[in-house]
Amino acid sequence: MRRMRGTALAAAAMAGVLTLAGCAKDSGGGNSSNNTAASTGGSDCVTAQKPPAAPAAASSSTAAGAKVDGSQLKIGLAFDVGGRGDASFNDAAAAGTDKAKSELGVTTVNESTASASEAESAKQQRLDQMASQGLNPIVAVGFAYADSVKAVAAKYPNTKFAIVDDDSIQLPNVTPLVFAEEQGSFLAGVAAAYKSKNCHVGFVGGVNTPLIQKFEAGFLQGAKTVSSKIKIEDEYLTPAGDFSGFQDPPKGNAKAAAEIAKGADVIYHAAGASGKGVFDAAKAGNALAIGVDSDQYNQKTVEADKDVIITSMLKRVDVAVFDYIQAVAKGDLTTLPKRFDLKVDGVGYATSGGKVDDIKDVLDGYKAQIISGAITVSDKPQK
């Protein structure tokens, strides 16, 4: 997990961002008036002009080279709380190993899932057991594994480890897979403001940690960048250290319902499996919702609520996990990006269901500004 910038620096950056964004938007081409928001119901909320049109996208450089053979790899996948089936973070990691099976010929993937209240020793034992069984590489899903990965990787220097959402471990056999969650969440905030009829949106975080604060920070900044009038509800399910916030749909439901009762009509969650409760509350309260990590509109476990899911902030853990496994199979880890951000499509937004098609040019315009550096997104919430 990257270290946060100081509060003063973040505040200064935020002020600069808003000024820059306003100036950049003034030069936007085409019929870019606020009236473009009318069909979204947010025309009275959006106070910023549209950003300049994004430059024509170059075709993605996922060139198919020589076939990579991963058939000799035996992969260990240590899930965070919720495991496969959480319709979010862990499912994205599982999708990465599933793709490795179909495209690289991997035949062995052993999975194990953390429980919400397990001791650190249980995580260490899980990884130790995988390494002692000859699994290699081992992927730990989530920053909660940091201490255990550090201990076990030192014990097994010939086993390769990757850890999602942590870059604190300085060992040659450990590869960090970290993301610019704040950048993707900025786009979620833009979408929320454009789609809100009440100019009132909400954020529900699972556990109040520096990692989830990155989602919160981007969302707040994105919403405020496009609307000077936006009102934002901002809540967490559990404090730092209580990871049950990622696996408590009833609590997610209650928190989202309370935000909706206050007037919020678009809710963005970064709460893992608890997001199911957020979606349920949005549907019951005639509100809209924004998913996280995976394209939740297409997730079977939340299928009953898909009609209220307008988009999802894509955190491409699946891409990072697959790319890591492929790099291990090729014997070259230097090809991996240091951080999976908008520039490398490591984060993004989903378009399934067509509910943000009318503002896609807006979202892509802001995406281009972030990639170019015209907008710097803070990873610390500015309230």
TrEMBL record:
Keyword annotations for this protein, in alphabetical order, are: Cell membrane, Lipoprotein, Membrane, Signal
Q: Which residues form the signal peptide?
A: 1-24
**SUPFAM superfamilies in the record:** Periplasmic binding protein-like I
Localisation: Cell membrane
User: Where on the tree of life does the source sit, at the highest rank?
Assistant: Bacteria
Identify the InterPro entries for this entry. BMP_lipoprotein, Peripla_BP_I, PnrA-like
Q: What stretches pass through the bilayer?
A: none
Residue span, ABC transporter substrate-binding protein PnrA-like domain? 79-375
User: Does the record's keyword annotation contain Cell membrane?
Assistant: yes
Family label = Belongs to the BMP lipoprotein family.
Its gene?
A: bmpA
Record field: compositional bias (Polar residues): 32-42
Topologically, how does it sit relative to the membrane?
Lipid-anchor
Region Disordered: list its residue ranges: 27-62, 100-128
Show the PROSITE patterns listed in the entry. Answer: PROKAR_LIPOPROTEIN (PS51257)
Q: What is this protein called?
A: BMP family ABC transporter substrate-binding protein
